[in-house]
Every structure is written in structure tokens, then in C-alpha cells.
């Protein structure tokens, strides 16, 4: 199989970098970047809009353009997350947890530099894994059943104890509330309506886009208006900002181990259909916090590792998401679902044929996506200067702009006024939680992992009951269970050690 | 507003929400109610414990917790980027009226969107906000 991969990869590379083909991924990347600056709009929306225009095109330009759409939209959401606390996409919500505090400290340049480098390298990692796994893709993906997904969510939940920062009760209570909110809407098995309060809007559950926008961006607008802060960074001139782009870029090498682990998390999660980038970035963030050791308390206050991990996972997931798409025709994300529609419209069937005779076509798509990911990072690095200038603009001028961006982002996603209302309500709740010292991250993690947890738990229990699977004999599930137990033990020991040493050092 | 009262009030609101969810769970079928019921019960217990802590007198600053900002609501509201206090002239003391004033801007935006649509509401709101701020700053744009 590998003998056929190398020539196909080379053929695909030659197609992408030939004239005028190269123009398609460049145009696609720039379009996706411009489009994804508006919160709530994603690469998938752009793809949906572009389908009618490209219907009569040849296959290669279409693959180049749509591959670029998938790759180009990923990075830009992190820029608004870092600068204004506005997650461009749900998956960027993990980046703002440390990216925005870095901008507040005047280190926006460092954060954007790190985000750009982590994105480009994460994407490269994802593509590399994708190429290496093509021969064994079937076995790899089929190894992940409901039991493995369940244990992955359990591992995600165990990290909540790490993110509690000593306030375990509040943290767990918030996680419980997040889970309860995630249950709103149709029950996935019985289709019974739960907690909709007779509202038509709540039947599909709470939409994460307005919720995230409100919970962070509007809460921050509220905070800016209440605190009377002059500028986001606390500085009025760009020269006063201490951050440096190359410090951020170098962070990927300084924390190479974390980068590799986060990119692996992103690729694995991306390859499992139906989980999504948001889970990948939050699990990677939680892992970064957990593996930080004694200095992990800086997380949430502007730690560069809190930017590096979610960004690496977020971009590495693109490569992983292409695995089930190309191998089985099962989309790993919304973007790849749109890609599948485009492939079908142009008469290309994913599966054995795609990874056999049409392998060079698959590589055109892979390289276009990879090129697009790298191009966004280069453009992002090039525009760091003017972008960070925004953190020195008076907040009086910024508040209505951020407010407008958030409301447009919340509204435009589905064109429903209630989404704006949800954003405002959660903005207010987010602000209260912030000033009353309630942790906000557990709520987000629980909201993201909740439906996945409930669904996989009930399926696993049923399969175990029917004797279809034996949970205790599944090696990946057991490995993840060990990881979860290890996480809890590590946290307990770490907390005890810190509690014991505090009176001596502080007192 | 008293910090402790605000804390208790917030926890109570969360508690009422969870109780409401648990009451609604009673009407659900067995499968649909299984996980939410467990999660709801655990959350209820945790919130009750938190409410107990909230009712305790405000914690004083000790050697183990030397960060006064951790316990002062006013400091947390004022807290922002380093150097904020100097830039904002030490403003930012928490007042209920201030919170209501800020909330009104949010409500105004919602009303604008509802009445005239997003396209017109956004520029109108921005103009109104900047105009008001300029007036407060003595004509500075």
C-alpha cells in the first residue's frame, strides 16, 4: 500500500502547486479567513454558499477550493478569541481561556504567534498521521466504539477536578449545571422532550454558538463597561506591549511534548465521527493544565500552554476528520460533511475506490487543506502588528463593536432572535460567575461532553447487557479508564502536596 | 449591594433552577430521566453545600490566603489588566445602579434588534453609545 501512497502524494502535490491551480487554494484560504472573522460563521457555511457557484466546475479546482475552505477557517477564530474574548468558532472557546488574559497583559503578539505556529504545525501533524494511517485506517477507526468514546468523555470529566483551582464544590456544581443544560431538547434515544418549558426554540437543545459568545464575549463587554478599564491591554501605545511574536512561535518547540500530545488528541478525536473540534480543543486544554505540574496555577491567567494545546488539537483534527470521510464516507466534522456533499455532487464516491484508484484525488484534497492551514498561519503572523494594535484602542470605542460582532454572530448562525437573547442571558450569567468567583470552564466542558457522555453511556450499558461487548476486555477503553484514574490520583496528590507546602512557604 | 447577599442570591437562583429540572424529570420516561436525575441530585447536594458556605460570615484574609482580591467583590470588578487602576483613574467601584445602567445598554440593543432588525440596530446602537460616552467625556469623540 505504501508503494502506491508516495507517487500519489507526489502527484497530488504537483497538481496543487501547478499554475493556475495554486490560485484556488489561495483564493479559498483568503475567503475562508475573511468569512470566519465574523463569529458564528464557519467554513461549513462558506462551503454551503459556494456549492451552487462551483457546481459546473471540474473536480480538481473544486477539491482545491473546498480543501482550502476546510483549512482556512480554522485559525482565524482564535484571533478574535485572543484579542476580544470572542470565540470565532466553538472550538476556539478553549483558546480564549488563556489567550485573552495574555492580551490583557499586553502579550497578544506572543499569543497570536503561538496560535499561528501551533495551527500550522498541528495541521502538518494531522496530515502526516492521515498519510501514515491510510493503509490501516479501517482498523483504527473501527477500534473506537461507544465504550471507548464513553471513557474518553469520562477522562474529560476527571480533568474538571484539575480545573477547579481549589474550589471543588463550585466546580462540580457548575459541571452538573452544564450537564443539565446539555440535556435540554430531544432525548437522543426515545425522542422524548426534556426541559423545554414548552418552548419551540429549546426543542433542538441549547445552541452552543450564542451560548459561548454570550458566556465569554458579552460577559467581557459587561466587565469592560463595569470596570471602566481604559484599554484591553492596559496600555495605550503598541510600543508599550511587552509581547513578542517569536516568543510565541518558539513556545511550540519549548513545549514540544505538549504540542505532540495535543496534536495527537486532536487527530484521534477528529477521526472519531460526530465528536467534533470543540471536544478536541477542550480535552487538549484540560490535558495541558493537568500535565503542567506545580506551575499549572497560571492557567486561566495567561499561560502560553493554554493557547498552544487547544490550537494544536484544533488544527490537527482536520487531518483526523478526513480519515473516516475518505475511508467510509462518514464525516468527522461539519466541514468534512460539506466536503462529502461536494464529492458526491461531482461523482466521487469515498471509500475503497477513493483510497485505491483515486488516491491522487484524495491527496489533492489533503494538500490543499494542508497548504491552506499553513497560509492562514503565515498571513496571521504577518498581520500580528495591526491586530495587536486593537488591544490599545480605548474600550469606549471597542464596546459597541464587540457587542455588534457578538450579536451578529449569535443572530446570523440561524437567523433566530432568541439566539441573541440566549447570548445576552448567558453574558449576564457569565459576568456574575466571573465576579462571584464561580469557575466557568467546567460548564463549557460539561455542555460539550454531556450529550456524548449520556449517549455513549446508555449504548455501552445496553451492549454490555445484551452481551454484544465485554467492556472489561477492550484495551483502548481500559487504557482510557487507567488514564482517568491516574488523573484523579495525580490531582489528589498534587493538591495535598500544595496544601501541605502552602503554610510553610506563604506563612 | 452586600457581597454576601449577592453570593447567596446567585446560589439560590441556581438551586431553584436545579429543583425545577428535578421536578420536570419526574414526568419523564425511565430512559430519558436516568442520567439527568442522577446528575440533578448530585448537583442539588453540591449547591446546598455551597449555600451553607455562602451563609457563613465573610472569610478574613489569612496567611494561607494572602490575596485580598480573592475575597473582595469590589476588587474583582475593578480587576483587569495590569495598570488598569491608573488608566481608569481608580474608577470601578461596584454599585447596583451601575450594574443596572450597564444592563440597560444590553436591553436597549435587544429592543433595537427586535424593533428595527439587526441591520439598522447595530449602527444605531453604536452611534448612540459613542454619542453618550462622548457627552460624558466632555465632548471628546
Write the layout of secondary structure elements.
The complex is a heterodimer of chains A (507) and B (141).
Chain A: H1 2-16, H2 23-36, H3 43-54, H4 59-84, H5 93-104, H6 108-133, H7 137-142, H8 146-163, H9 168-182, E1 185-186, E2 193-194, H10 208-227, H11 245-254, H12 256-271, H13 277-291, H14 305-328, H15 334-345, H16 359-382, H17 384-389, H18 395-412, H19 417-435, H20 441-466, H21 475-506
Chain B: H1 3-25, H2 30-55, H3 73-78, H4 84-87, H5 96-116, H6 118-136
Helix pairs in contact in B: 1-2, 5-6
For the termini of chain A, the CA-CA separation is: 65 Å
Rg over alpha carbons of chain A: 22 Å
Number of strands of chain A: 2
Write down the overall geometry of chain A.
globular
Instruction: Name the strands of the widest sheet of chain A in spatial order.
Output: 1-2
Task: Specify the structural class of chain A.
Answer: mainly alpha
Main beta sheet of chain B: none
What's the order of the H and E elements of chain A? HHHHHHHHHEEHHHHHHHHHHHH
* Count of helix runs of chain A: 21
Arithmetic mean of pLDDT of chain B: 74
* Oligomeric description of these chains: heterodimer
Ranges of chain A with pLDDT <50 over ≥5 residues?
none
Number of helices of chain B: 6
Secondary-structure element order of chain B, N to C: HHHHHH
How widely separated are the two ends of chain B?
A: 33 Å
Helicity level of chain B: over 70%
Instruction: Write down the overall geometry of chain B.
Output: flat
How much strand content do the residues of chain A show? under 5%
Quick recap:
The complex is a heterodimer of chains A (507) and B (141). By secondary structure, chain A is mostly helical. Chain A contains 21 helices and 2 strands.
General description of the model:
The complex is a heterodimer of chains A (about 500) and B (about 140). With about 500 residues, chain A is an all-alpha fold. Chain A has 21 helices and two strands. Chain A has helices at about 1-15, 25-35, 45-55, 60-85, 95-105, 110-135, 135-140, 145-165, 170-180, 210-225, 245-255, 255-270, 275-290, 305-330, 335-345, 360-380, 385-390, 395-410, 415-435, 440-465, 475-505; strands at about 185, 195. Chain B contains six helices and no strands. Helix content of chain B is about 70%, strand content about 0%. In chain B, helix 1 packs antiparallel against helix 2 (about 30-55) and helix 5 (about 95-115) packs antiparallel against helix 6 (about 120-135). Chains A and B meet through helix 9, helix 10, helix 18, helix 19 and helix 20 of A and helix 1, helix 2, helix 3, helix 5 and helix 6 of B.
